[in-house]
Amino acid sequence: MSTQNVTLLASLPMYDLPEVRRETDALWALLAFHMREAGVKDVPDRLNRDDPFEALWLNPDLLVSQSCGLPLMRSYRQTLRPVATPVYRVDGCDGPDYSSAILVSSASTLSAVEELRGKVCAVNSPESQSGYNAMRAAVAPLARDGRFFSAVRVTGSHRTSISAVAAGEADVCAVDCVTYALLARYAPESIAGTRVLGFTPRCAGLPLVVRADLKTDQFERIRSALRQAMADPEGREVRAALYIDGVVETGIDDYRPVLEMEAQANGLGYAELR
């Protein structure tokens, strides 16, 4: 952490859809209040939406953010440390664990993952647990000679993947179940023309993270503040708006199954989604 007396940086980028910016800001106000009450210094008033979240994850002035499990384990294990994982009350979640909704066209007659063989898959990014790694885990046991789909197209975002399926440009995509639930509530037009075929295997959900070199007392203050914020009756409305039902303390070991998914697919000769 920087030793200068500066306002630190915060971001909550994983579910910060344009349609829920007001709710995300209200959530941050709740978290920031409890951090200050717990004695955390230099808590920012506002979330940083100006810088790419990957840059913030490497910034020595980062206070808190939320990360995806796959890049956390692949690239940021020495940089970021999980504090706690929110519990979301949506289909596809179980406590702090989450999965991805496997989406196909509403007009599709497909009824099982096995029937996706030879289809076109849209993915947001090869660095995504929900869009890539979870889908690979779902189809790896079904692959033949290292292949399952006829083609895989990288779209850049869950939303664009959904649009590709709805438009018939792809047959299937995997979308973080919390993202899907938020879109269904706040932007139902964005999922029109698609339906849920099933869900991928679950793993630990998207953690709230801090710098790995954060001092123990500051870490514990932030963890305590998160517990208080998620139990504060004054925050009930905003938590409900974002489907948040609590928080569970987590650590880096809780995210090892992300790499185990990858290793199991590799062991089946399915090193990449294709």
Tell me the helix content.
Answer: 25-40%
Which band does the percent of strand residues land in?
15-25%
Strand order of the largest sheet: 1-2-11-3-12
User: How many domains make up the coordinates?
Assistant: 2
Ends apart, CA distance between termini:
41 Å
**How many beta strands in the DSSP annotation?**
12
Poorly predicted runs? none
N-to-C series of helices and strands: EHHEHEEEEHEHEHEEEHHEH
Q: Quick check: average pLDDT?
A: 96
Number of helices: 9
CATH topology type of the largest domain: D-Maltodextrin-Binding Protein, domain 2
> Biggest sheet: strands, sense, closure?
5 strands, mixed
Cα-atom Rg, whole angstroms?
Answer: 19 Å
The named CATH superfamily of the largest domain: Cypl, domain I
Report what the structure shows.
It is a single chain. This protein is α/β, with parallel strands linked by helices and 274 residues long. It has 2 domains: 9-88 and 205-259, D-Maltodextrin-Binding Protein, domain 2 (3-Layer(aba) Sandwich), CATH 3.40.190.180; 97-203, 3-Layer(aba) Sandwich (D-Maltodextrin-Binding Protein, domain 2), CATH 3.40.190.10. It is built from 9 helices and 12 strands. It has helices spanning 21-37, 53-57, 69-75, 129-139, 158-166, 177-186, 216-231, 236-241, 256-267; strands at residues 9-10, 62-66, 80-88, 97-98, 100-105, 120-123, 151-154, 172-176, 194-199, 203-204, 208-211, 244-249. A 5-stranded mixed beta sheet has the order 1-2-11-3-12. The chain has a 5-stranded mixed beta sheet with strand order 7-6-8-5-9. α4 (129-139) links the parallel β6 and β7 (151-154). α1 (21-37) packs across α7 (216-231). It is globular, with a radius of gyration of 19 Å. The protein starts with 8 loop residues before the first strand and ends in a 7-residue tail after the last helix.
